[in-house]
């Protein structure tokens, strides 16, 4: 699969579908690095949120949309879309973005049903666009993390057991929870390969120089994310940096 790259000398042009807290956290990168990322449209049913986000980036009224169907009817000059809508409103805008030939950064979950996930993967492969989703299963599954979340949602780590439960529901079983998680991750990697997701950030044409020049800022931004405090495993900055480096080079987490 050959992905269309952004022409040299201009930033990636991204439309934002869902202008809530998570979207604006992503857009901090655009604020700090306008030479790399440029919001070109904002879609949100809430007029206040839509206008606040649009005004931060100087977007004219014709680039502000109350619903995504209006945006996809004339998708401006976007290269990609960021989809941060509620969990049950991921599938439809994602499919419409793919059909429009736009790359997608999609918040978890991918969709509400397995057949919808498969449809997204199939359509993205057919259209030659990238749909990016992040997973942190192996990291969160540590039974003895260096630091627990400040406001954890339970009194002791049991993420490994929960991931193993998900794996067994999918028919993946090992001799214990740890082996089951390893097999689960292996199957996820096989699925990623099947739908054309590359193994490293480097394989998408991001130069080592460009990646390293923004690494420290990306680490800080990830640490400051609003969900970090609620994560079952509270990350150290050096752990986030290590994850980024492994993702860039395609090393096992």
Q: Estimate what percentage of residues fall within beta strands.
A: 5-15%
| Straight-line N-to-C gap | 25 Å
Output the helix-strand order. EHEHEHEHEHEHHHHH
Over the alpha carbons, how many angstroms does the gyration radius reach?
A: 19 Å
Query: Ranges with pLDDT <50 over ≥5 residues?
Result: 148-152
Net shape: globular
Spatial strand arrangement across the major sheet: 3-2-1-4-5-6
Q: Summed up, what is this model?
A:
45% of the residues lie in helices and 10% in strands. The protein contains 10 helices and 6 strands. The chain has helices at 21-32, 47-56, 68-73, 91-99, 114-127, 137-140, 159-169, 177-194, 208-223, 237-249; strands at 12-17, 37-43, 64-65, 80-83, 103-106, 131-132.
Topology diagram in text:
Blueprint: E1 12-17, H1 21-32, E2 37-43, H2 47-56, E3 64-65, H3 68-73, E4 80-83, H4 91-99, E5 103-106, H5 114-127, E6 131-132, H6 137-140, H7 159-169, H8 177-194, H9 208-223, H10 237-249
Parallel strand pairs: 1-2, 1-4, 2-3, 4-5, 5-6
What brief labels describe this structure?
alpha/beta; 10% strand; six-stranded parallel beta sheet; 253 residues; 45% helix
Question: What does this 3D model show about the protein?
Answer:
It is a single chain. This protein is an alpha/beta fold. It is built from 10 helices and 6 strands; from the N terminus they run βαβαβαβαβαβααααα. Strands 3-2-1-4-5-6 form a 6-stranded parallel sheet, sandwiched between helices. α5 links the parallel β5 and β6. α9 runs antiparallel to α10 (237-249). The longest helix is centred in the C-terminal third of the chain and has 18 residues, at 177-194. It is globular and about 60 Å long. Residues 148-152 have low confidence and may be disordered.
């Amino acid at each position: 699969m050959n992905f269309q790259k952004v022409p040299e000398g201009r930033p990636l042009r991204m439309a934002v579908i869902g202008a809530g807290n998570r979207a604006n956290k992503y857009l901090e990168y655009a604020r700090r690095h306008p030479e790399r990322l440029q919001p070109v449209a904002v879609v949100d049913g809430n007029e206040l949120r839509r206008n606040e986000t649009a005004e931060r980036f100087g977007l004219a009224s014709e680039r502000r949309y109350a619903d995504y169907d209006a945006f996809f009817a004339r998708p401006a000059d976007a290269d990609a879309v960021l989809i941060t809508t509620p969990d049950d409103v991921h599938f439809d805008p994602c499919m419409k973005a793919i059909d429009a030939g736009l790359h997608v950064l999609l918040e978890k979950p991918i969709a509400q049903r397995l057949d919808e996930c498969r449809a997204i993967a199939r359509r993205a492969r057919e259209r030659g666009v990238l749909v990016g989703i992040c997973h942190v299963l192996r990291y969160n599954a540590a039974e003895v993390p260096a630091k627990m979340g400040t406001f954890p949602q339970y009194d002791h780590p049991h993420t490994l057991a929960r991931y193993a439960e998900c794996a067994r529901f999918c028919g993946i079983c090992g001799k214990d929870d740890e082996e089951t998680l390893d097999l689960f991750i292996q199957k996820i990697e096989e699925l990623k390969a099947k739908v054309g997701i590359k193994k490293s950030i480097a394989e998408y044409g991001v130069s080592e120089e460009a990646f390293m020049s923004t690494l420290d800022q990306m680490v800080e931004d990830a640490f400051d994310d609003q969900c970090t405090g609620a994560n079952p495993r509270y990350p150290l900055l050096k752990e986030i940096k290590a994850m980024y480096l492994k993702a860039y080079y395609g090393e096992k987490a």
